[in-house]
Amino acid sequence: MKERRDALRRLSYGVYVISARRGEEINAMTMRMVSQVSQRPPRVALAIAKVRYTHQFILESEAFAVNVLAKGQEMIGGHFGLRTGRDMEKFAGVEYEKGITGAPILTECSAFLECRLVASHDMGNCTLFIGEVVHAGTHDKPPLIYRESDYFG
Ligand SMILES: Cc1cc2nc3c(=O)[nH]c(=O)nc-3n(C[C@H](O)[C@H](O)[C@H](O)COP(=O)(O)O)c2cc1C
Asked: Which among 101, 109, 153 is positioned nearest to 132, based on CA atoms?
């Protein structure tokens, strides 16, 4: 059990803020379990625990944005990843723009990918959401690499 957990911890990830809109409400959460799963069409997959508030936003709006955090943005990863939007307005004081899907796009990040939901699969405690990229952009900043001790030290 411990070996399995430790081995899984050695998979490598970036750090992403997944954002979505539901009516007038916006929310976002930090993620590591994000991957590209197709080039043509361009598709990405997210493994989101069903208990996350953002999970409901994606199911209802059928859209989300992947904000790729930049090197040095560990604080933003902690801000969106260590508290739930059920109890607070996470975007208060954070700079963002409204994307074409309505999802908020962080102004300061390495890149963003706006996606329309094309499939969702029950994976146990998580849902695997598959999104097709409909709008994307980059900034001249290298991406942040996930290190567990930056958030859960
Ligand atoms: C660095 C980091 C990575 C995370 N990766 C994931 C992930 O891949 N999947 C997931 O369901 N939760 C992940 N989380 C946890 C959520 O971000 C966290 O529970 C968040 O508070 C959920 O917010 P919400 O309830 O407003 O949606 C991660 C948290 C951190 C700090």
From this structure: 101
30 lines ligand 1 (CB under 6 A): yes
- Looking from the CA of residue 57, the nearest atom of ligand 1 is 27
Cβ(15) to ligand 1 under 6 A? yes
The minimum-distance atom of ligand 1 relative to the CA of 48 is 11
* 53 close to ligand 1 (CB < 6 Angstrom): yes
Does the residue 45 lie in any domain?
A: yes
Q: Which tokens go with 81?
A: 């990843």
Residue 28 and residue 17 in contact, taking contact as beta carbons nearer than 8 Å: yes
| pTM of the full structure | 0.98
| Residue 19, ligand 1, Cβ within 6 A | no
Tokens representing residue 107 in the block:
């102004």
**What is the DSSP code (8-state) at residue 6?**
H
Would you give per-residue pLDDT tens digits along the chain (153 residues)?
A: 899 999 999 999 999 999 999 999 999 999 999 999 999 999 999 999 999 999 999 999 999 999 999 999 999 999 999 999 999 999 999 999 999 999 999 999 999 999 999 999 999 999 999 999 999 999 999 999 999 999 998
CATH code, 56: 2.30.110.10
The total domain count for the chain is 1
